[in-house]
Every structure is written in structure tokens, then in C-alpha cells.
UniProtKB/TrEMBL annotation:
Top-level taxon of origin: Bacteria
Coiled-coil stretches: none
Organism of this sequence: Bacillus carboniphilus
Gene3D superfamilies attached to this UniProt entry: 3.30.2140.20
Protein name per its UniProtKB record: Arylamine N-acetyltransferase
Protein family according to the UniProt entry: Belongs to the arylamine N-acetyltransferase family.
InterPro entries: Arylamine_N-AcTrfase, Arylamine_NAT_domain_sf, Papain-like_cys_pep_sf
Length: 267
């Protein structure tokens, strides 16, 4: 875990506090990208290879620049928080997501570093309805009578997705079922038919969705560029996001074999 903290740039752990979790959350988002590229290499491994230990997680980041999806990012972060002495558990979120449930000084919070639209700090869990604003989107929460929480994400006035959070411990069986499902090699599995990277250096939002690269800044400024040259695109991923060329080329090969051509050849 000390290597994990060092990678996050944490030199002195200090006493437990909510502010410490805020700092760790921001450091995590600044360091590890939410990315799907690594899946196109990990698909060739077994289940144990797809979900790394903490040591393997850090090593893969150092060697390849990989972060991962929610199963990896939140899965490792919850281990770090637990090691630091916090009362945390993974909880299921309908449609395959997992989040972190934090209990601190008699209150409950939602922590999430494993999402393209994450939170930069623990989100208080309330009764009834409440709203959370980040610089890049708005989340509407509605806690139901049975304890489940409806979660609607909205960006630029448009609904992105609606999910349901269940405040109960995620079972190991559920966790691995969703991991296996995320690797379903079928056209309907959209998360296995595209390239996506989202990273938050200094709380800026850098997102590559296939060939469209968008930078959003907390000030509201937005820059969008569409890449038409494959080599330039590969260099972007390597130089900006730090993900190895070999990983990106593996992703392109996988997608092409399934009829997904990000850079079609013009005759």
C-alpha cells in the first residue's frame, strides 16, 4: 500500500479525516485514467488477470499507463481506504457499475473514482431527493423507501444515464459476474466495441471517445478535436494519457477484427 500512496504522491498519511479522503480522491483521479484500452489486452487472460492485485495494478500503471474501469479503480481504492482504517465497502450499482460506500462519524457517503463522470469528494447520502453539481455535470439523487437510490446524470442539459445504487455490500459472486459480463464479446456490449479514456489532471476533464478528444476546464472553456490520422491519434494517447502504444495498437486490432474501424481506409 505504501507504493500505492507513493504513486498518488502522498508522502505523509497523517490522521484519518474526511479531508484526507477528499485529497486521496482527487489524487486518484489526477493519477489513474478511467480507460477501456487495457481490456483489449486483458481479454486474453483469465479472471484473475483481469482484476489485478494492488501490486499488479501499480505495476501495470507504471509499465503501460493503465488505470481501468470501475471494477479495477474502485476495487483497488476501497482496499486502500480500508487499509487506512476507514469503514468502506463496495456496493452494486445497477447496469454493472460498482461504487464505494463510506461510513464516517455517523454519516454515509458515496465515493467514486472509477467512472467517466466521477465525484471529486465524498458525496453525502441523504434522505429524499438531492442534487450534486460538479464542474462538468449534474447528478440527481432520489432515495426510495426501500433504501435504493435512483441516480440520474445530466450533462449540457441532456440525460447521460440513470442508474440505481443499492446500499448493501457487493458480494464476490456479483462482482465477478459483472466483470465477466463486461468482457462479453458481442456487438451489444458497447463498452467492448470502442476506445474511451477519461482523465482528470488538475480537475480538468480530458476525454477521448474513439477519435474525438475533448478538454473541459472548470472555467467552462471547452476544446474539441477530431483525429483523422491514426498515427497522430496513437501519439496523443501515448504522450497525453501515458498509455503505451502497444496497448493502443492491440485495441485497434481487436476492434478491426470485429468490424469497428476508427480510421477507415479510403479507396
Amino acid at each position: 500500500m505504501n507504493r500505492y500512496l507513493k504513486t498518488l504522491g502522498v508522502k505523509d498519511v497523517g490522521e484519518k479525516s474526511l479531508q484526507q479522503i477528499v485529497d486521496l480522491t482527487k489524487a486518484h483521479l489526477h493519477t489513474f485514467p478511467f480507460e477501456l484500452i487495457s481490456k483489449y489486452t486483458l481479454v486474453e487472460t483469465d479472471l484473475n488477470g483481469r482484476i489485478p492485485s494492488v501490486a499488479d495494478f501499480i505495476e501495470r500503471f507504471e509499465l503501460h499507463g493503465w488505470g481501468g474501469n470501475c471494477h479495477i479503480l474502485n476495487g483497488r481504492f476501497v482496499q486502500l481506504l480500508d487499509w487506512l482504517g476507514y469503514d468502506v465497502q463496495l456496493v452494486p450499482v445497477e447496469k454493472g457499475h460498482v461504487a464505494i460506500w463510506l461510513k464516517w462519524e455517523g454519516k454515509e457517503y458515496l465515493v467514486d473514482v472509477g467512472y467517466a463522470g466521477p465525484f471529486f469528494e465524498p458525496i453525502p447520502i441523504m434522505q429524499g431527493k438531492w442534487t450534486v453539481e460538479t464542474p462538468y455535470e449534474t447528478s440527481y439523487f432520489d432515495r426510495q423507501d426501500d433504501g435504493a437510490i435512483l441516480w440520474e446524470r445530466v450533462r449540457d442539459g441532456k440525460q447521460i444515464v440513470t442508474k440505481t445504487i443499492y446500499l448493501r455490500p457487493l458480494t464476490e459472486e456479483e462482482f465477478y459476474w459483472w466483470v465477466n459480463r463486461s468482457y462479453s464479446d458481442i456487438p451489444e456490449n458497447s463498452l467492448f466495441r470502442k476506445v474511451e479514456i477519461t482523465w482528470y489532471p488538475n480537475e480538468e476533464r480530458h476525454q477521448l471517445m474513439n477519435t474525438v478528444y475533448t478538454i473541459d476546464k472548470p472555467t467552462g472553456e471547452r476544446v474539441i478535436k477530431t483525429y483523422e490520422d491514426e498515427e497522430e491519434w496513437v501519439q496523443l494517447i501515448e504522450s497525453t494519457f501515458g498509455i503505451s502504444r502497444k496497448s493502443t495498437e492491440k485495441a485497434l486490432e481487436f476492434l478491426r477484427e470485429r468490424g469497428v474501424e476508427l480510421f477507415p481506409v479510403l479507396y
